[in-house]
Specification:
Two copies of one chain form a homodimer. The first copy, chain A, has 16 helices and two strands. The first copy, chain A, is mainly α. Chain A folds into four domains: 66 residues, Multidrug-efflux Transporter Regulator, Chain: A, Domain 2 (Orthogonal Bundle), CATH 1.10.1660; 29 residues; 116 residues; 100 residues, no CATH class. Chain A has a two-stranded antiparallel sheet with strand order 1-2. At the A-B interface, helix 3, helix 5, helix 6 and helix 10 of A face helix 3, helix 5, helix 6 and helix 10 of B. Chain A binds a DNA duplex (30 and 30 nucleotides) through helix 2.
Chain lengths: 340, 340
Amino acid sequence: MLLKVGELAKRTGLTVRALHHYDDIGLLTPSARSDSGYRLYNGDDVTRLYRIQALQRLGFALAEIGDMLAGSGPALPGLIAQQIAALDGQIEQALVLRARLQQLQRRLATDTEPTLADWLTALELMTMYEKYLTQQQADILRQRKAELGEQYDADWRALTDRVRALIDAKVPAQSAEAQALAQQWTSHTQRLVHGDEDLLIKLDTMQRHEPALQSHNGIDAAVIDYVSQAMTEARLPIYAKYFDADEVERLRGNFRRHMPEWPTLVGAVRRAMDSGLAPDHPEAQALGARWQALSHATFCTDEPAMRGKFMQAVKSEPDLLLNTGIDRALLDFVIATQSH
Amino acid sequence: MLLKVGELAKRTGLTVRALHHYDDIGLLTPSARSDSGYRLYNGDDVTRLYRIQALQRLGFALAEIGDMLAGSGPALPGLIAQQIAALDGQIEQALVLRARLQQLQRRLATDTEPTLADWLTALELMTMYEKYLTQQQADILRQRKAELGEQYDADWRALTDRVRALIDAKVPAQSAEAQALAQQWTSHTQRLVHGDEDLLIKLDTMQRHEPALQSHNGIDAAVIDYVSQAMTEARLPIYAKYFDADEVERLRGNFRRHMPEWPTLVGAVRRAMDSGLAPDHPEAQALGARWQALSHATFCTDEPAMRGKFMQAVKSEPDLLLNTGIDRALLDFVIATQSH
DNA sequence: GGTGGAGCCTCACGTCGCGTGAGGGTCAAG
DNA sequence: CTTGACCCTCACGCGACGTGAGGCTCCACC
């Protein structure tokens, strides 16, 4: 019994166009044509089509189905496992998306009629939080921001403007004004992070890597660099407890030149850690070498005397690592790269 | 500050090609071009791009994003709800697919190295079960089939072959041979369904509507029709308890002509019921009218005397509805269409 | 034998969000 | 003056068909 396309289409619930397509791509070629060129499908064709449909309902692509029916290609169990894995990925993605949308929906319901612009800004912030913070941290931040109110943002803007003014006026970072601002900067930050060093590091990373955020709150690379320079200067009195005056002057000079290179390196190391890179991996080794070189240049750790005093200082003064993005885990990682 | 494509791309994590694409479709047109034709993006462009990205991360299509940013189109809350609904659909679909694949995986693990052909046959059956039966029913069926073993399938094939032989030999359905086969047919069916009328109806529907199944087990429309004719004939003795001999002969003649039309109508009514059609909907009304006309033609229910006897018979003999695909709910639906 | 309608044929473009060249200008550094 | 990085504009490709356009075939009915 030979079927024409329309008949086969009716029998299988497909469209005529789909059957044409299968013919085009060679997935199901009718075994015969009538004199007038009509496609004629025999029983074997029909059987093949049923199988095609069955495999299609499992989510396989037409090309894959073709391979499977040709007996070539990888074995079925593997394909199925692969298919399941792909589906799991899809499902997870969809669930994440769904959660995002729902959160947004809730906030839309509570907020007092936000404008489109507000709304989009909130949205951007949300996706950024999601990228850099854990769910918990994002929740904490949102709550604290709500508690602090709009005045807090205004304070930041004022502070940032004053920093920028100092930069424009070329006031050096070790000036009293700069020191005072850096002081305020730290206390403002603490109002948000409440001493949570991990949160602080992540926010710092976010601020450094998200131009969208930078243009939103005006805290760009220049401001960040200036403030961290000032903070660095603020650390010099602490070093003075361990080094003599000449050495402190050397350190100051080194800091001026090399401190701006640290955040980049610290960020690179942290990314390496987070991506699970092994300390003996060549890339990690390279980072370790960079770290050592920069240490030498900044703290003169290539000179045994200086190195000893430096180690002593760092060990005795945990505050020296504050606001640097460096924590115990990161230091351990770096040490591990160098012990290989 | 004006950015070139590459710079903007780096800042946003997009590719240059994507930005070209946004320009092509008018989603993000750079506010300026350099003399040499380079795209130049200003701050507003960058802001717009951040918003585009934020909305994209929510799963909106570029065209939708364009509409949203243009302020036209429907309001955001509605769009979000819609988006969530769409996602829910996707997730559900993916979960169903996943379940299918896992079931298959389990069976692949237990079965003794099936050939590709066996495997695909099982797959077809599985998807068919899924389409017509509830999960429970499918499980029950699978278990019973496993208990009955291969002999059961062989019995069916033998029975079907004998039916086909009668058809080819043009042996009438009221013959003793046909009656005997119909008898066996029923008992064979019962070995599988164990008196579950709902399951029986669904299997019947499946067998009638799935050419794949028909060509698989050889039970096609001709066989079904012949067997149901024989079953119909088998019912005549029951009617004889309520009608006199002449009337029974009239019924026999009517049955011969009109009984084959019933399954189609019953199927149509059931689909209408299942799709939640209201009995006073025009389409339901039309079905009711068809039902009445076919009743008149088959059972002479337009003649008051015949109608009375018929109602009496149906009420007293529930067996008359056996194997017809008609149950109480369906009758109620039909009656409801006619009371409007 | 003509006509009408259903069904068949073969192009061929559109979908969606870009990837991936091809072929050729622009710009700053050496 | 070259080199290399970056930019430009086409334009095809993907996947599974949908949707015509323009024309042929078949069958029933007049």
